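Lab notebook, bench 4. The sequencing result for the construct came back, and we need a structural model before the next group meeting so we can plan mutations. Quick request posted to the team channel:

Model the 3D structure of this chain.
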Amino acid sequence: MSTVFTEFDLMAELNQPGDKIVLLVMDGLGGLPLEADGLTELETAATPNLDHMASTGTTGLSVPIRPGIEPGSGPAHLSLFSYDPVRYEIGRGVLEALGIGFRLTANDIAARGNFASADADGLITDRRAGRIGSDECVRLCAKLQAATGDLLADEGVQIFVEPVKEHRFVLVLRGEGLDGELTETDPLSTGKHPLPVTDTSGSVEGERSARLINRWVEAARRAIADEPKANSLNLRGLAKDPGLRRFPDIYGMRAAAIAVYPMYKGVASLVGMDVIDFDGDRPTHEIDALEQAWNDYDFFFIHVKKTDSYGEDGNFAAKVHEIEAVDAIMPRILALQPGAVIVTGDHSTPAKMRSHSFHPVPTLLWSPRAMPDTNTTFGERACANGGLGIFHATNLVPQAMGHAGRLKRIGA
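Done. Here's the predicted structure in token form:
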């Protein structure tokens, strides 16, 4: 596997105008066979358009973090955008906040919140509160804001509780002296008590921040204790905005994000992409948005979520169907005549495992300038023998830029 990571100064020096690039991410694309002699979800799916692109493009397997390491969604997407997630660690709270359009300041700590169900002893019985609806989330966030909004005023700290989607919300604490390396409260399984937030940095700011957040969590749980489903909550990904170097400044491309779920809008916004608003939540609706915005941008990130959701649910057949729905829209992308199209996932989510996994991700790079390899289908085992080899995901955008004529030559 290549271990050379993108050099931003070099990319900023070499970028030049060229053709447009599309990065289409089927979240959790990679899979596993249910039986030893079976096929993966991608190999099972009828994908004539992706197979044709594979036969005329180049394929391989990408590694989001490092070999053998299971990626979270935020780090995996940063890797696809060419930011090494080991060097640039981003808390999911920041991504959720940016994803709903919440403007973070340098004095903010953001956390992703999950409403949960708990029994009379406080043991978590459902980490997602039965996946309550988004309307219920809005009501609960308003209840928490009213009950706890002034809780930390004596410490000079403002509190914001904002709904995201379904059982997810954002908590933001704003005030001077908030910092630290803060742990999460989610025990990650049922039948356990939530954990306290602790600081691992050893700093005065971190100790204070952990104390204030625990104070809010205790009050918040009291405020919703009478709820029939969402009578508890947990916090994950507590962090500050790290102020990353912007993707458009590095690559000289006007970049747009087309995504349904807020978290993915957040990671795109974090690196300086414009988020495109559109109606609907299916791949066809996302391509409608792509066609409408085509003349205004150079780089398009398109995110399809349900491949991951069905993988986590263990629904092999539904994941296959979603892959087929994406295959059906590929001719519309190619009709726009991009210089390069990347089709991949941020990580693998095999339905067999019902979770993210460490497995490398099937990747297809199509371009009129591509050197075809010997593959005629798009699948995990075919990609293992592809011309791109096994490579780190941070190298993917520069590869696409080369194929799109967007990098200058070095030397005579």
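The domain at 104-239 is CATH 3.30.70 (Alpha-Beta Plaits).
Will bring this to the meeting.
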